[in-house]
Amino acid sequence: MPKILIADDEPSLRLLVKATLSANKSFDIIEAVDGHEALSKSQSELPDLLLLDVMMPGLSGFEVCERLKNDPKTKKIVIIMLTAKGQQSDRDWAISVGTDYFLTKPFSPIELFNLIEKILSANNKEAKTTKSD
Fold first, then answer.
1. Per-residue pLDDT tens for 45-76?
2. Which residues contact 40 (CB under 8 A, 6 or more apart)?
3. Alpha-carbon dihedral of residues 94, 66, 54, 126, nearest 10 degrees?
């Protein structure tokens, strides 16, 4: 069962994302309320996918992403950056620290769900190919 970590300091956004993903009961959903918790839970839980807010208390999403992508244990976690900061400079910074995908708030829950399904489907196919080699 794919494991997804939702890291956002806004309870309403975590609830929205969790409700969106709950339509598919095949996800194990974990939550983090700030950057430090996001980093800690990513390292201990090793989620398949991390939905990461940029502006959080403690460590920013950029800092969390950079630390995870520089750690051999966590570098393969797919990171979707969720942010109200949609300027090109923010996108460039996100890419420079290793973000895999970037969604600007407000985003469509359906768009997010479809992106997650696409990512996990591609990862599943990649895993099957790797195992058979």
1. 999 999 999 999 999 999 999 999 999 999 99
2. 32
3. 70
pLDDT at 108: 87
Q: What CATH number does domain 3-132 carry, 3.40.50.720, 1.25.10.10, 1.10.8.60, 3.40.50.2300?
A: 3.40.50.2300
Phi, psi for residue 131 in degrees, rounded to 5: -65, -30
What's the one-letter identity of residue 40? S
Tally the C-alpha atoms within 13 A of residue 44's C-alpha that lie toward its C-beta.
9
Dist CA 39 CA 87 (whole Å): 25
| Amino acid identity, position 87 | Q
Question: What residues have CB less than 8 Å from 93, skipping those under 6 apart?
Answer: 62
What are the boundaries of each domain within the chain?
3-132
